[in-house]
Amino acid sequence: YETVLRLDPEHPEAAERYGRELALGEEWERLAEFSQDVAGRGVEPAFFAAVEAMANDMRGRYSLAQSQFATAIPSLPDSIRRWYDHPPKGLDTVPDFWARSRPLWLLPYNEMRLEYWTRLTYAFLVLRDREADVIGPETPEGDALIRYGWPSRLIQVERDASKIVTGLMLDNAVALLNCDLTGSPPRCPPGAGEGMTKDFTIGRWVIWMYGADRPSLIFEKRPGMRVPRYVWDAQAEEYAKITRQRSPMTFTSKVAPAAYWFPAQIVRFKGRNRGVTDVAIYAILPARQMGLPARDSVATGLFVFRDTAGFPLVIEQRDQLRLGQALQLTYRLPLAPGRYAVALEALATAYGASANTRDALVAPAWDPATLMLSDLLIGHVLGAPGAVPPLAVRDLRIEPSRTLEVAREAVIWVVWEVYGVGVGDEGTARYEVNLALRDLHARPAPLRLLERLGVARRQGTPVVALEWTSERRLASDGRALEYVAVQLPEAQGKYELVVTVTEPGTGRSAKTSRSITIVVPN
């Protein structure tokens, strides 16, 4: 190929085949330089610009690769570009898929989409077959590469020609023994020869093996077969079909392959301004799990999106947190009515570690004529009220739970606000409160689902059940504050706190809940 390109520098097929050999040899630096040179000579400039971006991504130059792909893709031919513009089949029906599935918003690029573009380009370059007129992504191997990435291990098994020929001879001999060879032509009984070996071609099986969390796939290659296919016998093809449906695309971050959960408690209250929801987020950085030394710092960020078409960003807050400081993070933000998605992230690129949590929330329209409750705020310690009785959550001194994991037999504080309750002649609001702590694992999952849907009647006795009549003085904006201490049981597991407030005079009621986990203290 080097000789051909030296004699004809603009030979496109020689350039593609030479680039293929460099990619197969994982010579990414040479491939990047070669692609840049070829594109500069005007040989498929858009495609080889994408190949250069792929090589830079494989070299770990992710931001450069992202910008190169963004420049090259709009100039690709339509037959190729359509693959880059849409996610893999099975994900292309999800609106704004790339934005919604973006692993880390702290990075200046979408790492998952960059990986997809790199896999696509590799399939176009390496797995294409010109003679069969098949592009790489349309081959079974190309499809597997795009969905699952490069295999961690590749095994090839040659088919034994001697055994195939021996089996063919035995099958033929058995068939001949059942035939009358004296006539012309020979006469054989019905069914004779049905067991004869029909598949006597040599070839090989290629096995792509991944980690325990990914599938292993088998492809078959035979002489004369231009494009390998999935093995059709047994359940191999059905297995591949089911795997594609269950896992349209797998991804592991290259920047931060070690990913951890970023624990947080998100609480919604009615805002001071009309039509606004005040959201409080109490989180704690999992520095120990991420393996971060105390002398270093870590990037953190909170990203809030309005859940509409286009998935626009509403709020972005980035920080550089020194680990010598407190690892507790607190965010407060006002939101207009609507549906939102929340991403809380931490990233330490030097250690290849990240932490994140994803959640969705609805900022309701607070109707003053409707009885409504805030979310439950779970706290470990509640400061003694001052001389002036507290009328809202903001008046309390509370140490919130940042993991929603609480020690068994501990005492926790449950705080919430009541809105839209009627005021009596004495200027106070009177209502009944029912608080129940239920073990989420005490009943079968189908029954719990029916209970949530209101189809089945709740069974069993709550672990903790409290009832009382409350008479509260309201704040100037009509809200009432409630807080109570709850003694937790000894048994570990997932529990649900459910609070129901009922207005006796009107019969109106409202309910709110919060899940907690009871653990053994360290």
Q: TL;DR?
A:
This protein is about 25% helix and about 30% strand.
Mean pLDDT: 85
Number of helices: 13
Give the distance, in angstroms, between the N- and C-terminal Cα atoms.
Answer: 65 Å
Strand order of the largest sheet: 5-12-11-8-9
Characterize the main sheet.
5 strands, mixed
- The helix-and-strand class reads alpha+beta
**What share of residues are in beta strands?**
25-35%
Are there runs of 5+ residues with pLDDT below 50, and where?
A: 164-168, 193-200
Number of strands: 22
Radius of gyration in whole Å, from Cα? Answer: 32 Å
Tell me, what's the shape?
elongated
Q: Which quaternary structure do these chains form?
A: single chain
Helix content: 25-40%
Please specify the SSE layout and strand pairing:
Elements: H1 2-7, H2 12-24, H3 28-40, H4 45-58, H5 62-72, H6 78-85, H7 97-100, H8 111-126, H9 140-148, E1 153-158, H10 161-177, E2 204-209, E3 217-221, E4 229-230, H11 236-246, E5 258-261, E6 264-270, E7 277-284, H12 287-290, E8 297-306, E9 313-322, E10 328-335, E11 338-348, E12 353-363, E13 372-373, E14 377-382, E15 398-400, E16 405-407, E17 411-419, E18 428-439, H13 445-453, E19 464-473, E20 480-487, E21 493-502, E22 509-519
Helix pairs in contact: 2-3, 3-4, 4-5, 4-8, 8-9
